[in-house]
Amino acid sequence: MKAGLKMFGLPVAALLMGAGPVPQVPDLGPQLERFTYPWPVQTMEVDIVGAPAQMAFMDIAPQRPNGRTVVLLHGKNFCGATWGSTARALSEVGYRVVVPDQIGFCKSSKPRAAQYSFEMLATFTKRLLESRGITRATIVGHSMGGMLAMRYAILYPASVEKLVLVNPLGLKDRGEEGVPYTDVDTLWAGEKKTSYASIKAYQLENYYHGVWKPSYDRWVWMQAGMCQGPGRDTVAFAQAKTSEMIKTQPVAHELYRITPPTTLIIGTLDKTAFGRAQAPANLRKFLEPIPMVAPRAVKQMPNARLVMLDGLGHSPQVEDPARFEKALLAALEMPRR
Length: 337
Hints:
Largest sheet: 8 strands, mixed
Order of helices and strands: HEEEHEHEHEHHHHEHHEHH
Helix content: 25-40%
Oligomer: single chain
Number of strands: 8
């Protein structure tokens, strides 16, 4: 959508229908083969049910190293490239930054035989860091990446210098709220209907509290572009399996096991409540979004604090990079308790 169009504050219907036809989305490939990342992309080979798969990542070396490493973990509807501004800000002050695309997402392989689990993704992430000579790092996770970061910290506490969770999923077990199980076939059928318009409408309502900026369009193009062409079915299947992973593998009951120094950075206007689409209509309005859950969750973690970013939504690193990066750098410089 062109930058000159009036987007700010428009409701979903006006934004998607009143601004002209939905643009033709290019086929970017099921592994984003035709989408450029801000730094060179490398791959690490892993084994998935006896077959090789490629885990893509960026490893950004600072000009003046401070001896510390930060790992940035993307969310389900995001990719390593979405961390571009954050990675640049960290690198400029001396951090080495590693940004993986998890197996099943973005530029990494999407093997049909994979049985996705947060333990699997955490294990591959640990293996990646070890292959780069990194034994200890600060782990930053956003959305689904926050769930993965929590699982990583539980599995490998000695390898985590600090933990930063940005509007993470998983702070509450949605099954306890009544969200029913949805099988992979049903989720797969829904994922096959994904389009530019549906992605944009969902993000506008849940991530950006009804306010759209032209800079967000790049990330809609990125996500929608994986769903075009002959790779569409492969991407949809991986998305369905990872949705089931999020629903069936909650970390909410294990928050007490997260021992590294932890900071939750929460945009107060985030409306995300994972599973709302699958919940009965009479239940949806009662599902608490992340900002309502976070204050209770942080008290269950032994060494955690909460930073609320007023006026921002689910993706503060995208919505207001400068403000988010200031909060992140402050969290990284906090003395260990």
